[in-house]
Amino acid sequence: MDGQSPPRVLPLLLGLQLTALCPIAAVEIYTSRALEAVNGTDVRLKCTFSSFAPVGDALTVTWNFRPRDGGREQFVFYYHVDPFKPMSGRFKDRVVWDGNPERYDASIILWNLQFDDNGTYTCQVKNPPDVDGLVGSIRLSVVHTVPFSEIYFLAVAIGSASALMIIIVIVVVLLQHFRKKRLAERADKEVAIKSKEEEKLNQENKVSVYLEDTD
């Protein structure tokens, strides 16, 4: 019984060693999940990734789009060594590459947003031998304006900062003004006292000379 144990254990140990030497290859993709942008503006669809294998010329990035109201999936952008823009469709001349494979960035910029751009954008990265992994997605909502709460808090923050800066400037200017005024008043008092002392001394000298002459 003991003599049969090593042959059974050996394949198990060998399998564990092979698993350690050859880890499962999978690309991890990171996106903002949800994004809101104003109609008519440009938006950056950020997609970053991590890969077990070093990034090389085999890297491919595929962006697709599915409208919110349903419909078939549409091609948005493709990258393999060089960017390939769509030659037709809604995204023609409206999408540019803004990624950097060396920094594990596969982002794109979408120009001149329209309301029918509402939907889900998917980012798929393959870096052989890392070809498996979940597809990253971004739910884009195109709106008329930025929500009031964001505008309100932004305006309050900017207004508060501006008011604080103005108050600080006014306080500094007033302090400098009062300091100069006090220095000027002190100087005037010193000049007046000195003048009185000189006048008094002159009068005393005149009296002394007069008394000497009368004697």
TrEMBL record:
Coiled coil: none
Classification via SMART domains: IG, IGv
Nucleotidyltransferase listed as a keyword: no
Domain of life: Eukaryota
Signal peptide: 1-26
A Pfam family that the UniProt record links to this protein: V-set
Claim: Glycoprotein is one of the keywords in the record: yes
Family: Belongs to the myelin P0 protein family.
Protein name: Myelin protein zero-like 2
Source organism: Nannospalax galili
Gene from which the chain derives: Mpzl2
